[in-house]
Amino acid sequence: MNNKRQFALRAAGLFCASLLLVACDKTPTPSKASDVSADTATQEWSKHGGGDAEQRFSPLRQITPENVDKLGLAWAFDLGVSRGIEATPLVVDGVIYVTATWNKVFALDAKTGALRWQFDPQVDRSKGADLCCDAVNRGVAYSDGKIITGTIDGRLVAVDAKTGTKLWDVITVDQSKPYTITGAPRIVNGKAIIGNGGAEYGVRGYVSAYDINNGEMLWRFYTVPGNPENGFENAAMAKAAETWKGEWWKYGGGGTAWDSMAYDPELDLLYVGVGNGSPWNQSIRSPGGGDNLYLSSIVALRPDTGEYVWHYQTTPGETWDYTATQHMILAELDIDGEPRKVIMQAPKNGFFYVIDRATGELLSAKNYVPVNWASHIDSETGRPVEIPEARWGSKAPYLQLPGPMGGHNWHPMSFNPASGLVYIPVLETPYIYANDEEFSYKEGRWNTGSDSAMGSLPSDLAQFKAVKAAVKGRLLAWDPVRQGPVWQVEHNSPWNGGVLSTAGGVVFQGNADAKLVAYRADNGERLWDFFAQTGIVAPPISYELDGEQYIAVASGWGGVFALVYGGLMPAASDPGVGRLMVFKLGGSAKLSELSKASIQKPTPPPSTADAITVAKGKQLYDSNCVVCHGDHVISSGLIPDLRWSPLLATAEAMQAVVLDGALSSRGMPAFKALLSKEDVGLLRAYIISAANDGLEAKLEIEK
């Protein structure tokens, strides 16, 4: 561990130096793009990405750089929860639909915010144990008078759009396995298309289509092959199996399609983004290598049958959690003097791809963030030219850019057909990948094959400050034709909201500093902001009613970065409130004041355990608890801070919760199948040690 820590300290310095190289990039002139695939609805926002092309562009132009400073709050609705509000609202027939934590659906008057109805699908909150990245939901779909939503426990539910009455409810996954659903369904040709999550927990990914009228499953396409002894579902799976080694199916394989999709009605192609491998470490998952199709790929399917048409793999042999589930955009671009129908994506691996969406041919690719795992993408083969040291497996630890959170995560980007620019919420979060020397696959447990201790924040003050300064985010305006930056705005945190651009020449984005901000689309000038009291990760939308243009966004900070790295949470962001906020020119409503009740932290029990016991407890904590309760047991406030829990008082109290599920109704699942009484004792010893350590004060963390 000592050598690893020394490596981590050297690596932090290396990372900081790499950032200085990026800052010198020059700002080019934007290119032009044709407005062929622009979404056409002007008054409503009836589809997840604004339209099938998922451009997240509004053709409304009432709000402009000249008058956006007159934008004010029209109304706000308290969602009653605050954890991980990621939904894109939909607006249909004067009603706005939005989801909150645990898949609750709200229907509100889009002009006044008055509640029409709410629907609670009664999610089994013990499924929180199967969530890699918070109890989030990214929204609903609308079709033929129905609102359709996926649930964390793997169901697809349809309710009447006017009344909220449940129409049908179907199970889309094997609920005995750690599958989850966090993404929004897409509607194509009368079918609700939905994927799932759970790759880190050892599942096999797929995407399914259901009849919107009755919930009948019409087809299913698996994204990775299963056990060859059972035969293959189709030729695509047989082809994929040739690219795997060993007994991958015993680990599930991964490849979950947990978020991004797009549809081209002219070509009649559905595009599905596929996720990472299970486990991450390819040397464990597929010893001997191989491309491991269709991990980290864009797969084109026939939406009526699920038939495979083509694929493009962004990261062959994925081993870094480099998903291709990030937002995809369809557009028509002038490339080399010819109009090309393209699909654009900025996946986690740090490269921006422009691909022919009819054939899957790579047209261009360029890194949009600092990258040190590959030198470039070969234009002839479409494959990355890897840096050998980056394929860590059994090799030495490697400080990598990007890390597993990617250069761009799930937060949607936006394309403005008029400017020809893509606006990307960019992250810079390094990570030290190191082989887990003691790895053994555990059913239903977090399985990455990477030494989680290497990803912990340093406890040394100087090193902590260096990492905090280096971990950042920005809003990046990218020219997809020239493949280069046009302008960028630096943020204080990497975990910021999705993006909306408008025909009025304005770009909207929320941020971790609890503000919704408007920028000039052509040069990034900051024009207006609104303090939302809590961080914003969800993307804004725009709609028009009675001749007035509205901007709507859901607030409520959360997600994997917010939970794991509570010590990096911006001080201005209050974790205690989640809302849907709607703005218009001349709006004068006010948010209710936050209560600032002082919470007295209890005195923790004295730490009496020896260093070996504490170290074992930390290892268990990093494997089972860190993704919710925070690195070094420092919570973001979205989840209870275990250091001040009354459960620490006795071993029996902690066992009742951790093993027996005494708080499962609140989202704290039972770990009886994964942990023993001895394990809970080790966990308790580590948490008590952390509570007595006073790390927050040492690191000067404002909470």
Folded structure, characterized:
It is built from ten helices and 39 strands. Helix 8 crosses helix 9. It has a domain of 88 residues: Cytochrome Bc1 Complex, Chain D, domain 2 (Orthogonal Bundle). It is globular, with a radius of gyration of 24 Å. Helix content is 13%, strand content 28%. The two termini are 29 Å apart. It is of the alpha+beta class.
Q: Find the count of extended strands (DSSP E, 2+ residues).
A: 39
**Tally of individual helices:** 10
- β-strand percent reads 25-35%
Helix content: 10-25%
- Are there runs of 5+ residues with pLDDT below 50, and where? 1-41
Indicate the structural class. Answer: alpha+beta
Kindly report the name of the CATH homologous superfamily of one domain. Cytochrome c-like domain
Q: How are the strands ordered across the major sheet?
A: 1-33-34-35-36
Q: What's the N-to-C terminus distance?
A: 29 Å
Shape: globular
Rg, rounded, reads: 24 Å
